[in-house]
Design brief:
homotetramer, 288 residues, Tumour Suppressor Smad4, 8-stranded mixed sheet, Rossmann fold
Chain lengths: 288, 288, 288, 288
């Protein structure tokens, strides 16, 4: 089924050790070739294992097992460059939206996966480019969200938004979240955005604390282009991709967002249910 | 371009008279064949004009001009049965999301339209069926929204929701709005839903005053099936389609929603801009 | 400390039996005089116990123990007419905002209470009168909230609101919630209202699904007068007090709200902590 | 009525000139003693007028007329130290919540005021102190709000909140707004807070984009003490008072808020109506 498995683990989390060791035993017993990232390597006795950088690991494996939380899987997604890699997330205790396999049921689930019984799910990324004085000064990819937000200032910033070249509005706010369906249950939800089903080819624009109360989240087609222009003269703003600050922005900077051509492929156990995850994570069913 | 034009006017609104008369003069001068609904007929002197029921009118025309507000256009959309009809909405003063042509610029805009210069836009409808004891007891179409809500009771109702056969959640609330992109700027917006761009092939489920605070609007693919089951034993609920109450619901009733195969086609002047309508209707740009 | 204890139990809940029997044993052992409501009487063997109507019970006791949920305590509060009665709420499993003593720790807590170690907390009620054609046609009291909402109609209703004689606004909505601090964690919270600390002498007006997005909850002094007028010609509305529908309303009806002069007094164990209840009920601390 | 009038004008706004000149003519004609701040002085020809620092001006006048927007009045409020001063706000075009007199009706309104016909309204301020390692390292006053928010980081911060010594909750969010009634229509409203009537002796705590969806605004008594502790180890946060950043915060910093003993007194024309201002500012009555 899979020719080579890569193991990538969360940094600085002692709970990783046992799970990684258990995973290695599992792979060795089944004679499945595997590669470790440096994080995994620190928790196993030195012994001729194949340890590589994340970049090299991602390039050489066709199944990547991420041990950690959604953040670890997000980071790994940024490194992937090919659609032919599949990712599988094992959480360390708390169910994740992306890391949906518990380490306690890891062995049975992997048996299923290596027997070819699993679900595949594509998730798209946003590509963002920052254009300043007609030159691209930065670019990045996001699986969750791209956020333009005020920075080192208590003042609101002023943003002009365009979708497919059409002017949408000028807003004064703390910032604007552009989120994929994957990110709709992350920061965008805290900002008042809706949940977008992961299969949806759409993105949502969520204003953060907008000055105008009728500035509401807008869902648009993911295949279009979203452009945000910093339009306030004294604005101090920052670009954040998947929670990592990326670039300080200045007036007239244009932030141009497009769906990235190549997405990632998640692997879930057969019977995986997005809504079950949603119910658990959002405590639906818990009475007030 | 168009073989026969149908005129449909808002009921009981005296502002209709002048606009309908002006429209008839326009059509007579240009020798464009037209048909009137009974409402239009009441405001013109009796004189051998072709007056028909809305059903007959909708069946015989290939362009229908609606004079009134969005509500009048909604009502007309329910009567349409064929995709080969186009609709054009003329408002009586206040810009509508669907009736976007002002009566003051009506003549110039119609010149453009009859010269073949216009934009077409498809909008889909929701088909809803109510299944009781394995029998369909009612069905209806909605351009804006289908709402299941409590009725003659101060008690919350309990609803189980399924999307494409997957259980989503059990919620206790005042009700649930299922809205098309067209309806996302109507009642769903008041309920806290996001704005969906009209070109999006998606629907949004908006809980009304849900007991669980994390029950948030969910956007799902419009090509799937949404099913809502009245699950509370003593629930008293009602089905409302586009603001018209349709059917009293009882326990175990299943409300099944699907995208209707045939939508409607709106005609807009060249240069029509959805976001401009949004800015005007939501008072964006007005300072606090 | 207390001369006579009244026991009032939730209707139609089998979990009541054991708790009531245990409470009676407790009171008999300590030779504390007590009275039962008819609900409590059904779960104990007939044996010369003092069984009374709720009205008579409330009039003759100076401590009333409510066994059930917040709803049972709400109902009891409506019967009370004198400030000299204290209420203590025992829940049947799920922590209530008002019924904060678990039946499992009931005995120890009552030992404390009868030893004079407890906290008292006053909660105010809203008095509502409906004035039609200059005549009062109905009146009621609410501990949680008074709601004016649409009824048997899918149409929005139009409400004019006045505070202390000053016109506040005309709103089109599904209705308006006027809530005490006690009610602020009930229906008003689902409608988007804030939490009001119980000691606050304030009420909050929460519009339900208002057509105008900037119609937001307003908190005003509880010592003023709030007046709501049904102003839409074809409106069909209903008055609901603490979740019990009370009166069908028609155009020009004036709903006049004032703080009731006499409130109720809740008894809590020493160390009772409102915020701890809030954290438990709202699942604060639970990770997403 | 008033012994000496102080004039304070908005900085760097050319619309100030005409209004200030007109005001000076008005005061000279009526032989009312007055003092100018340096901003006002720049727009009048040099001529023996009494020009002072804001501090000195505030100390020597019993009526201060602020020409500008709410921001100018906020700034002036920070300078005031005595309750015996009254403030009157003249706006430069757009109605303010605090600067409610239009320059066009300024003369008539001032005639009324100097004839003793006006309304007085007290507004309280929040006093905030930052305690680090048991030492107070900063303090400030706010008329609108005190905000603790993340700073130079895309990560959420973790805040522990206490009211009157009771632990309220630990929240992960972008920050927390503590707002007076005066500030409830400013930033707190954008963050989802309720409107608090200005006469209310209450403050509202509004979480900014909280991770836990049930973290809702809480209204508490203004006479209590609110304490916020920066509890995340790697948190980078900032304190902002009335929109002016004040102090960078680090872990374990305690932000202690109390109502300031001395408030400010606003003067309004007779017939001033808070709700009329609210209706205008929030565009109530504007149809969707």
């Amino acid at each position: 089924m899979f020719n080579k498995v890569g193991l990538i683990a969360k940094k600085d989390d002692e709970r990783v050790e046992e799970t990684v060791q258990s995973l290695i035993r599992y792979l060795v017993e089944r004679r499945l070739p595997f590669v470790l990232d440096s994080e995994c390597a620190t928790v196993v006795p030195d012994g001729g294992l194949d340890v590589r950088s994340r970049e090299s690991l991602c390039a050489s494996c066709d199944l990547i097992i991420v041990i950690g939380g959604d953040g670890t899987l997000l980071n790994t997604a940024h490194t992937l460059s090919s659609k032919d890699v599949r990712m599988l997330g094992i959480n360390l205790g708390r169910l994740g939206f992306l890391t949906d396999i518990s380490r306690h049921e890891m062995t049975q689930q992997l048996d299923e996966v290596f027997a070819g019984r699993f679900q595949e799910e594509e998730r798209f990324l946003l590509h963002v480019a920052v254009v300043r004085d007609a030159r691209q000064v930065a670019s990045n990819d996001s699986l969750n969200d791209v956020v333009v937000h005020r920075w080192r200032t208590a003042r609101l910033i002023t943003l002009d938004t365009y979708v497919d070249g059409s002017f949408v509005n000028t807003q004064r706010s703390d910032g604007l979240i552009v989120s994929t369906p994957t990110g709709s249950t992350a920061y965008a939800l805290s900002g008042g955005g809706p949940i977008l089903h992961p299969a949806l080819d759409a993105i949502v624009l969520v204003p953060i604390c907008p000055h105008t109360l009728s500035n509401r989240p807008i869902v648009v087609d993911a295949d279009g282009q979203v452009e945000i222009v910093i339009s306030g003269a004294r604005d101090s703003a920052q670009l954040t991709c998947d929670g990592q600050t990326t670039l300080e922005l200045t007036m007239n900077d244009r932030i141009v967002l497009r769906k990235k051509e190549v997405g990632i492929t998640l692997i879930h156990p057969t019977g995986y249910d997005y809504y079950a995850t949603l119910r658990t994570k959002l405590h639906w069913g818990k009475e007030l």
